[in-house]
Amino acid sequence: MTGARTLPDVHPLTGVPAGTPADVPGLPPEVTICEVGPRDGLQNEAGHVPAAVKVELVHRLEASGLTRVEVTSLVRPDRIPQLADAEEVLTALGPPPPGRRRPVLVPNAHGLRRALELGVRDVAVFASATDTFARRNLGRGLAESLAAYGPVVAQARQAGLHVRGYLSMCFGDPWEGRVPLAQVVDAARQLVAAGCQELSLGDTIGVATPGHVRALLAALADAGTDASHLAVHFHDTYGQALANTLTALECGVTVVDASAGGLGGCPYAHSATGNLATEDLVWMLDGLGVRTGVDLDALVATSTWLAGRLGRPSPSRVVRALGGGRP
């Protein structure tokens, strides 16, 4: 790999030491990255990715310093064929090392039962803030889908699992357009009331802007959902993902979803492009002196390796700049 940094604790351009926050109002000293590449990043890949590659990807991501890596989804194979090997991947991985978390998406009670049988300790449920997307993606309307998660979350919590809730279409929907803040707040309130310990707000088609992000977080705070229980999940369709993330951090959010190499999309929303690239996020946070615990060089090497397995260049700007990003 070319362009490797020789001072990993200091940003190469700003010279800001890691852990020394820049003078940005409300900026946290540390951010937790929820790496969604192995699940959300790969789920829309047309070509089959072998289970062995997925397992190695998880190991490489953890070796780079990422403490939370979403591994797969226990969804029906005909829904997302790329993740049909979920049980094989989870069995090969075994329990996570100390200090590491490996969330698994469960679509329903049957998925939760499979997760419990496989020894999974971290699960996530996936809901929508809009009725049209709920019907297209989940097969039922908004109110019905939100209500259906109540028993699933309750059972998971009773079993001692950590439960995250994904709320998609928080900013815009390809069929319904701009989503009213009150509608998102109501859906979020229901997931939190059901028992979700963390709620990830998804900009599924990448239309959010910093002003919209600030307004939604303010509305959620006014309704009693504190930023300490929230994460953000931005797509970079219009190049706003980093700006939106910075705004969320200024508003008190400290958990950010990202995908190694910028992989991802949504198989049920064709206007959705790639997730925020983990490398681009780490580059920005390093420059702000915000701790992530991630070795950027190791992460770039991993995404360059993965690009080789996928047979196409990485979409991440930082991967292209530091590692070439080409197979």
Helix proportion range: 25-40%
| Number of discrete helical segments | 12
CATH topology: TIM Barrel
Q: How would you name the CATH homologous superfamily?
A: Aldolase class I
Any idea how many domains?
A: 1
Task: Give the CATH architecture.
Answer: Alpha-Beta Barrel
Strand content: 5-15%
**Nearest-integer average pLDDT:** 90
Would you tell me the structural class of the helices and strands?
alpha/beta
Any idea what the shape is? globular
Strand order of the largest sheet: 2-1-11-10-9-6-5-4-3
The SSE order reads: EHHEEHEHEHHEEEHEHEHEHHH
Task: Please state the CA-atom Rg, rounded to the nearest Å.
Answer: 18 Å
Number of strands: 11
Low confidence ranges: 1-8, 266-272
The first-level CATH class name: Alpha Beta
Distance between the termini: 12 Å
Query: Major β-sheet, in short?
Result: 9 strands, parallel
